[in-house]
């Protein structure tokens, strides 16, 4: 089955959106990862939810996890305040998560290999017109969609 047939719409933000909107989208939609598009609507980054959560944890706590045990909830509640006034591009983790994408004709094993190799729960499907350098987001293939496909194929065997 080609990627175009597995691709689904997926909520996203752009690099210019407020960081707090990105965090809210991830939380309210129960997303496994944040899909970030550039201002032209092309995939810019896919950031797993665990890495988004890591952006609100102070670096000194990341370096010494024992500090997390002594920080009370009142201080923990203030962690999200670091999002205020920042754009998604300013807020993204230092370790950039390049957007993984495949063309609309990619097969399920190609998609699965890209996803597994990069440890991300979704891969964007981008269609490029001939001669065009930029592409158009068709949708994404999630790990759940791949597993549904594999299980359905196994049931038919």
From TrEMBL:
Name of the protein described by the UniProt record: CBS domain-containing protein
PANTHER family hit by this protein: CBS DOMAIN-CONTAINING PROTEIN, CBS DOMAIN-CONTAINING PROTEIN CBSX3, MITOCHONDRIAL
InterPro entries hit by this protein: CBS_dom, CBS_dom_sf, Diverse_CBS-Domain
Top-level taxon of origin: Bacteria
Species of provenance: Streptomyces spororaveus
Occurrences of domain CBS (ranges): 93-156
Keywords, ordered alphabetically: CBS domain
């Amino acid at each position: 089955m080609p990627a175009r047939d597995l691709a689904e719409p997926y909520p996203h933000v752009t690099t210019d959106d407020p960081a707090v909107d990105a965090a809210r989208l991830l939380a309210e939609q129960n997303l496994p990862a944040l899909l970030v598009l550039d201002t032209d609507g092309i995939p810019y980054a896919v950031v797993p939810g665990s890495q988004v959560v890591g952006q609100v944890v102070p670096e000194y706590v990341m370096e010494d996890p024992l500090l997390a045990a002594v920080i009370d909830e009142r201080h923990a509640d203030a962690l999200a305040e670091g999002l205020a006034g920042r754009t998604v591009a300013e807020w993204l983790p230092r370790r950039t998560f390049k957007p993984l994408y495949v063309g609309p004709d990619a097969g399920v094993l190609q998609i699965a290999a890209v996803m597994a190799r990069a440890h991300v729960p979704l891969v964007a499907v981008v269609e490029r017109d001939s001669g065009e350098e930029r592409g158009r987001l068709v949708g994404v293939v999630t790990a759940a969609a791949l597993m549904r496909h594999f299980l359905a194929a196994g049931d038919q065997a």
